[in-house]
């Protein structure tokens, strides 16, 4: 049986109480937020305590009701199996009531032990599968970290290349400006010599 975690149970109880306060005409709600919160905390605390107390008080009754029912069903299954076996000519029979009771107790005990062992085995397999998944996820994380490092290195290399190209562009622009200046100087000199 799945159990609701305590914080969620408190939240659910609080929402239920809030709805009761606003929807049920005979229930009067406090007029302020602190009053509503205090009422909700009191209700949730008492509800949780009473739920736990009721479970503790009724558990022996549940155990006393379920265990005999399972034993009774095992006894009926054994008796019907013996009867059907005789009809089929198979030598499976239960001679008396005490043999039936012992057979039922042994079947119940063996089922309990084997079901616990199977549950442990399933839990162990589930844990092993989770550990494999964790290992695979760790490998994927390492691969992603490596890819991130590679891309960062590539980006840094590209930035370095762009910076070098920008430096070359600036150097070429300075050279172009110097050449333009030299050309203008030579033109001026040529004009001065041509005028004289």
Would you kindly provide a written description of the structure presented here, covering whatever features stand out?
This protein has 196 residues and is mainly alpha-helical. It is 88% helix and 0% strand. It has helices at 6-23, 33-87, 97-195. α1 (6-23) packs across α2 (33-87) and α2 packs across α3 (97-195). It is elongated. 1% of the residues are buried.
Strand content: under 5%
pLDDT averaged residue by residue: 82
Helix and strand composition category: mainly alpha
Radius of gyration: 43 Å
**Helix content range of the residues, please?**
over 70%
Query: What's the helix-strand series?
Result: HHH
Which runs of at least 5 residues are low in confidence (pLDDT < 50)? Answer: none
- Biggest sheet details: none
* Distance, first to last CA: 113 Å
* DSSP strand tally: 0
Spatial shape: elongated
Tally of helical segments: 3
Keywords, please?
elongated; 196 residues; 3 helices; mainly alpha
In short:
The chain is an all-alpha fold.
Question: Which SSEs are present, and which pair or pack?
Answer:
Blueprint: H1 6-23, H2 33-87, H3 97-195
Helix pairs in contact: 1-2, 2-3
């Amino acid at each position: 049986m799945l159990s609701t975690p305590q914080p969620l149970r408190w939240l659910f109880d609080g929402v239920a109480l809030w709805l009761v306060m606003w929807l049920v005409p005979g229930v009067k709600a406090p007029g302020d937020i602190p009053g509503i919160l205090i009422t909700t905390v009191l209700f949730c605390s008492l509800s949780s305590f009473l739920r736990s107390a009721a479970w503790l008080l009724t558990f022996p009754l549940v155990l006393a009701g379920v265990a005999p029912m399972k034993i009774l069903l095992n006894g009926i299954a054994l008796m019907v199996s013996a009867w059907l076996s005789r009809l089929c000519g198979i030598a499976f029979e239960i001679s008396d009531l005490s043999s039936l009771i012992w057979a039922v107790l042994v079947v119940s005990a063996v089922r309990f032990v084997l079901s616990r062992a199977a549950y442990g085995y399933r839990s162990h397999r589930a844990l092993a599968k989770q550990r494999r998944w964790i290992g695979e996820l760790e490998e994927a994380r390492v691969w992603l970290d490596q890819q991130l490092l590679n891309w960062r290195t590539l980006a840094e290399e590209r930035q370095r290349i762009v910076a070098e190209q920008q430096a070359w562009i600036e150097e070429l622009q300075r050279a172009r400006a110097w050449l333009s200046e030299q050309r203008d100087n030579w033109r001026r000199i040529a004009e001065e010599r041509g005028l004289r």
